[in-house]
Amino acid sequence: MASNKSAGFATRAIHLGYNPNDHEGALTPPLHLTSTFTFENVDQGAAIFAGERPGYFYSRISNPTLDLLERRCADLEGAEAGLALASGMGAITSVLWTFLVPGDEIITDKTLYGCTFAYMRTGLARFGIKITYADMTDPQAVEAAMSDKTRIVYFETPANPNMRLVDIAAISKIAKARGAKVVVDNTYATPVLTRPIELGADIVVHSATKYMGGHGDLVGGIAVGSAEDMTQVRLVGMKDMTGAVMAPFNAMLVLRGLKTLKLRVERHCENAMIVAKMLEAHPAVGRVYFPGLASFPQHELALRQMPGFGGMIAFELKGGHDAGRTMMDRLNMIHRAVSLGDTETLIQHPASMTHSTYTPEERAAHGISEGLIRLSVGLEDIEDIIADLEQALPNVPSALAA
């Protein structure tokens, strides 16, 4: 099925770009496990290398299995083209190395995934790129931070780990008026819930390890944007700067994950809403950060920007850091692990795990409390998720006494 915008999201995720009749009737697209490709003659090879005719010549540049994944991801995000990469960080670094040079400035939100924060602070900055942090929940703060050297405005929404939202349309309008590209990490929301390109962003990146793959059995990254931008990222950022190419086998696994993405995300959303309401009502819990709750500071933005609220929850216990550690160690079914978007419910402590790259002072300044807990609500029966949390939460004496 070729791209058909009248077809629904799930239909395109399953069928787009593949016709079994072109592949011996195979229902599942073939896996191309090859590093290189042969040419009929020297002229054909030269033309493909020169970009004068379509074709494949080396899997570090392109591969038929990756090509199908790239086209599906781009279509689902409402973009012209896509690029599959070795990891989420491979996607982020390949994009930024493509469009930044020494002397440029990148403006980022105050809250970022720990490895992204570390890459910018100790990676980009080391090569003469200025990193400016702004509170992107306030569009005026972004406008005030812009300069004639700003080349990229980068943010996550919802942000990892504290769930802050950014008004994509408002920030994109400000950035484009000053000639800057907008790059959005859409890992938490997925294109099921948010499509930043349709709201004005230029490039979207994902850790495909998370919801796109969805089963905890791969590491991968995705970038989508205009055909021109993705060609540049492919030939500069990925090919020459990082070499962060996705393996064909992993591309096959992500393609499999896309087939159930809409169904899974809807169930993640349903389960997370129930869990968030339970946590908010529990006497041991001090605060819950979840866009679907009326108490969430940006709930109105969530209603405008997201048809569902995702499967991620952040919360704090009244007893603080120590109470959180005790509670997490008492869990039975829920696993202590640092990924997210898997079928399993996962829980972790950002300050000592995913966001330990921040100093304590940086975490305080960037809205990541020492007692914050991040919960990735999975696809288990909701009664079992609730039961495991409830048996752990009442056994936090310091929290209950607070």
TrEMBL record:
Q: What class of enzyme is it?
A: lyase
What the entry lists under Pfam families is as follows: Cys_Met_Meta_PP (PF01053)
Keywords noted in UniProt: Lyase, Pyridoxal phosphate
Q: Which residues carry this modification: N6-(pyridoxal phosphate)lysine?
A: K210
State the superkingdom. Answer: Bacteria
The EC number of this protein is 4.4.1.11
- CC terms in the record's Gene Ontology section: cytoplasm
Tell me which InterPro entries the record gives: Cys/Met-Metab_PyrdxlP-dep_enz, Cys_met_metab_PP, L-Met_gamma_lys, PyrdxlP-dep_Trfase, PyrdxlP-dep_Trfase_major, PyrdxlP-dep_Trfase_small
Q: Where is the signal peptide?
A: none
Q: Does the keyword Lyase apply?
A: yes
Instruction: Please list the cofactors this protein needs.
Output: pyridoxal 5'-phosphate
How this chain assembles, per its entry, is:
Homotetramer; dimer of active dimers.
Against NCBIfam families, the record matches this protein to:
met_gam_lyase, PRK07503.1
Q: Which family does it belong to?
A: Belongs to the trans-sulfuration enzymes family. L-methionine gamma-lyase subfamily.
Name of protein: L-methionine gamma-lyase
